[in-house]
Input
Amino acid sequence: MAITAAEVNKLRLQTGAGMMDCKNALVESNGDFETAIDILRKKGQKIAAKRGDNEAKEGLIFSQASEDGKSGVILTLNCETDFVAMNDNFRGFMQSLVDIALKNMPNTIEELVALPYDEKLTIAEKITEHVGVVGEKLDLSGYAKIAAEQVAAYNHPGNQIATLVGLNKHSEEAADAGKQVAMQVAAMNPLALNKEGIDENTISRELEIGKELAIQEGKPAEMAEKISHGRLNKFFQENTLLSQPFVRDNKVSVEEFLNSTEKGLTVTSFFRFALK
Output
């Protein structure tokens, strides 16, 4: 049967698949839209299986806060090439996943991909279908959420790095400060909120390295022990968010900046995702 351009375009708009793929699916299904959609979905499954061992190191990271500033999510969707990652269709698909996550606030990636994408497909099924659209392996590899009095999101240009920050107070001042701290997290990549968040293995390793360096510098063992603790404090200052020098004014720490913005204002949690 003859397939019209209007029918092909309608299927393309509905599925996001390429024009020729849509035409071929309609021809194969004798013009039946539901069957054509199933054909495109199966094509996605075949491509997903075929490309299962491929590396998906490119992609996008989106971070977004809710309109009321009380919650936020951050997601990483990987693909194989930056050509696909920079495609408007891929960006639109990524945004749709963020919107669903922000609306439902699931606890894990497993819960997220089990959510309905539309009336017919779950997110997991839609990702498989989208594999057929882009012709590459896709992997929803990262997801986190924050619920707090104030949540700020920052997406670095290019969407290769994004951050999400929660604060303990809700106000315009806190919202602005949160955005600045979210940019700080992107730039300075802190390991933890404060020194209590640094694990014991890391602390032991830093002490050992500090002591060994001091001994190599000719310091006696007892002095080397003290020097190692001094170097550990410097490590905390450089690698914990609240102790880091504030990037816009390195004469004050992030903690001091927040307190000067609004007394008692502080960060409750944060996430930083980056493509490796």
